[in-house]
Amino acid sequence: MNTKIKKTEEVLENFYKNLKFPSHLAQATTYSLMAGGKRIRPLLFLSMLEAYKIELKPAHFEVAAALEMIHTGSLIHDDLPAMDNDDYRRGKWTNHKKFDEATAILAGDSLFLDPYFVLASCDLPAQNVVSLVKELAYASGSFGMVAGQILDMDCEKKELNRSEIEEIHQLKTGRMLTFPFVAAGILANVSETELIQLRQIGEKLGLAFQIRDDILDVTRSFAELGKTPGKDIIEEKSTYVSLLGLEAAKTQLLCLLTEVKNALSVLTIVNQSDILLLVKNLEQI
Ligand code: GRG
């Protein structure tokens, strides 16, 4: 896993190091890219390629880096005053606090567009590149993450039912976690049927990931406050936890992860060790 992270990070660092544009833009993109993300999306993609017995080569780390760039750009924009207005992310200043708002907006813009330059330049068959570009735009744009974000903001103060919460999770978080599975399937040249199965696995894992994130948000708040959670923390926003309660949300998380493991076992993959390890890690809460 460490080698996968290291090689992806090399692509991320070198991309902005080698470009000759205003240095504070490179500093701002690199600051957030190297601020300590877990790299779960690249790891899922690279582990799925290995599961399909594909030998990892530089182009694969470029695809992994492209995905991480979009993810990082979305976090920079998510923290902006017009959105969540956060001062800290991963224990460090958010991008607009460290630099300024205009720089953070532009750093996000670069991180949304540069991935397509990376993909279009990588050494993969042209038809694969076209499919990856299409899938990444689908995952991140108005069919995916951006749509989820705007729905989430529109629904901030509303009480949502389970299917409304799931739809937002699916778009905002799920699509970007589905890309690693679908992208690996494209490069492994799997059948249309298996591609559909991969999409379903990604969607389940995406939902599980967001439920886990919601659980951790609440449990971290408890730990920081040093007391049992009040209704105020749990009910601030409609989430799986506010709807079902903490214990039922945990049960649902484990149930989804079991479904993911079962669905993985019927694919034509042969080397499951890293991908199963990643799923198992998500069971820890
Ligand atoms: C224009 C592509 C584009 C996006 C802008 C701001 C925005 C639209 C979307 C926000 C999406 C968002 C913040 C989703 C949350 C997803 C989530 C659970 C993030 C945390 O992911 P981790 O745990 O983070 O992988 P690390 O820190 O490990 O990278």
TrEMBL record:
Reaction equations catalysed: isopentenyl diphosphate + (2E)-geranyl diphosphate = (2E,6E)-farnesyl diphosphate + diphosphate
* EC numbers, comma separated: 2.5.1.10
* Signal peptide span: none
Q: Name one GO biological process term.
A: terpenoid biosynthetic process
In terms of PROSITE patterns, this protein maps to: POLYPRENYL_SYNTHASE_1 (PS00723), POLYPRENYL_SYNTHASE_2 (PS00444)
Instruction: Say yes or no: keyword Metal-binding present.
Output: yes
Would the keyword Magnesium be found if you checked this record's keyword annotation? yes
Concerning CDD domains, the annotation shows: Trans_IPPS_HT
The main enzyme category here is: transferase
Q: Output the NCBIfam families linked to this UniProt entry.
A: FPPsyn
UniProt protein name = Farnesyl diphosphate synthase
